[in-house]
């Protein structure tokens, strides 16, 4: 409907128009898979988002677990898990928002559940396995199924896996590298990282056994999740707090009953002075006496039928109640003190038994490095030649051997390069440095040799896919093609301006093609297919810098 303007001037009309724009999404959102203990003891299901280390500590305790048998003071089933320490190292190295996924076991059912949970979070881009178990191969194989093409939508999922290599012997003569189906989407690192962290066991990670049937009733308080076979120190601590609260309530109730009895005894003494018969109904209460007895627990019905005899019965009742609550409070306090002593003993034993160095997988720290490099420099920058934070020493953990410190030299580094493993090295004056930026790609697939190239394409595909979903069911004609071409062109032009693509001009850096006779036939259009072709000239890191020096001799 047109508007008639009467007064000369400038009028601005806002019209709704469909505009297509590709937005850059998060490029480094890892999920840490391992053992995690919820502080409140609630079961952990699916991927749990974590925004910061502070948020993590409010929700999770230390990952270590053990069992204490109180019948013979025996500590067993010590499991020094690495989940919480891996997340800490990630944040210390610049990590941002992430997910944690609790995995209580590594059987086939658990691994299938793991894969399903990760697929429910499409913003996850990095996969990190925290623990060190006999099932590492099975875990990596299952994570490998989340790489590459999606079974539902096709195309690249955009997820990248970080894994760790292991020496075959104490001499570090050879290295074992996890085998996955999509090596171009995998980066491997060596060695492991020793940290300055102190191992600790959270109350929810300590299971208490050996409680006898006679002792069991001491912990039967209002805890719906209580079970004798899975009693933890966290539950025991809650039981102690409940017993202490119960003791205070009983003490308060006993004191109130005692006060009521004393009040009624005083009133009876006043009434007895009138020489009333014990059975005679008392009708001449004063208002003060009525209010006092009402406050002491007598109802209006009690007052209407009150005699000296019934009054004495009330006094006896409150005296018994006071004694009963007093005894109950003493028992509750005894229970709280008994279990507090048990708690203190178990807690101290747990902290002593789990003591030891915390050695974390290098992949956990690398997730933080990648997140920081992406945020500060861009996803097209290689996550290498970067110092690691929170690392005190490099550790080699050979298969079937004992962990030992290691200092990587060029000879060992050459072996790692042959295995397509990125080295973590120590350099004087620089600290612990990431000294590699390659994927596990086969030699024939040189296009995907570098992590930065592979992840740049992952990012472009994810961003384009997310935006182009809005064009589904739009008319497959020239205006739509131009909107798509323009959106992709603007997106890639912005990457070129930032230095992500090589070429002196946009035409040298990328191309976008779409249209009838260009990327589609009439049959494609008739069958509802819109085909877009895009090419990118990604920059590659200078892995080998050769400095050639010549000395000019002055003629004699």
From TrEMBL:
Every Tail sheath protein C-terminal domain range: 446-548
ATP-binding keyword on record: no
Keywords: Coiled coil
Keyword Coiled coil: yes
Protein species of origin: Mycetohabitans rhizoxinica (strain DSM 19002 / CIP 109453 / HKI 454)
Official protein name in the record: Tail sheath protein gp18
Coiled coil: 233-281
Domain of life per record: Bacteria
């Amino acid at each position: 409907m047109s508007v008639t303007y009467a007064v000369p001037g400038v009028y601005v009309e806002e019209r709704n128009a469909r505009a297509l724009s590709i937005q850059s999404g998060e490029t480094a959102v890892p999920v840490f898979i391992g053992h995690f203990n919820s502080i409140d003891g609630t079961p952990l299901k699916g991927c749990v988002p974590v925004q910061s280390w502070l948020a993590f500590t409010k929700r999770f305790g230390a990952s270590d677990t053990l069992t204490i048998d109180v019948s013979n003071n025996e500590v067993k089933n010590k499991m020094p898990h690495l989940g919480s320490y891996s997340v800490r190292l990630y944040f210390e190295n610049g990590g941002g928002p992430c997910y944690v996924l609790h995995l209580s076991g590594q059987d086939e059912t658990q691994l299938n559940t793991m894969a399903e949970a990760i697929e429910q979070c499409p913003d996850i881009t990095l996969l990190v396995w925290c623990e060190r178990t006999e099932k590492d191969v099975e875990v990596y194989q299952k994570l490998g199924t989340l790489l590459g093409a999606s079974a539902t939508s096709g195309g690249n999922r955009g997820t990248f896996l970080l894994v760790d290599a292991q020496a075959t012997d104490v001499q570090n003569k050879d290295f074992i590298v996890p085998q996955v189906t999509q090596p171009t989407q995998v980066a491997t690192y060596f060695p492991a990282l020793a940290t300055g962290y102190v191992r600790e066991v959270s109350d929810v990670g300590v299971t208490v056994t050996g409680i006898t049937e006679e002792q069991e009733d001491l912990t039967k308080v209002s805890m719906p999740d209580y079970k004798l076979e899975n009693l933890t120190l966290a539950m025991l601590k809650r039981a102690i707090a409940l017993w202490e609260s119960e003791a205070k309530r009983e003490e308060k109730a006993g004191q109130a009953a005692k006060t009521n009895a004393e009040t009624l005894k005083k009133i009876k003494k006043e009434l007895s002075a009138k020489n009333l018969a014990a059975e005679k109904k008392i009708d001449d209460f004063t208002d003060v006496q009525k209010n006092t007895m009402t406050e002491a627990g007598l109802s209006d019905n009690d007052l209407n039928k009150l005699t000296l005899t019934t009054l004495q019965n009330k006094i006896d009742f409150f005296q018994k109640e006071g004694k009963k609550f007093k005894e109950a409070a003493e028992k509750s306090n005894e229970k709280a003190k008994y279990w507090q002593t048990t708690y203190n003993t178990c807690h101290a034993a747990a902290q002593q038994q789990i003591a030891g160095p915390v050695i974390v997988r290098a992949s956990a720290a690398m997730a933080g490095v990648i997140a920081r490099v992406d945020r500060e420099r861009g996803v097209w920058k290689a996550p290498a030649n970067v110092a690691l934070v929170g690392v005190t020493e490099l550790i080699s953990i050979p298969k079937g051997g004992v962990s030992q410190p290691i200092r990587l030299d060029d000879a060992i580094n050459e072996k790692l390069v042959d295995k397509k493993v990125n080295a973590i090295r120590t350099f004087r004056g620089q600290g612990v440095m990431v000294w590699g930026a390659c994927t596990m790609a086969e030699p024939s697939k040189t296009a995907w040799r570098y992590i930065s190239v592979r992840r740049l394409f992952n990012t472009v595909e994810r961003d384009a896919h997310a935006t182009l979903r809005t064009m589904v069911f739009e008319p497959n004609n020239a205006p739509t093609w131009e909107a798509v071409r323009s959106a992709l062109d603007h997106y890639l032009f912005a990457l070129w301006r930032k230095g992500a693509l090589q070429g002196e001009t946009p035409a040298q850096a990328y191309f976008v093609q779409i249209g009838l006779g260009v990327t589609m036939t009439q049959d494609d259009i008739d069958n509802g297919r819109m085909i877009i072709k895009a090419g990118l000239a990604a920059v590659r890191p200078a892995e080998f810098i050769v400095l050639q020096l010549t000395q000019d001799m002055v003629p004699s």
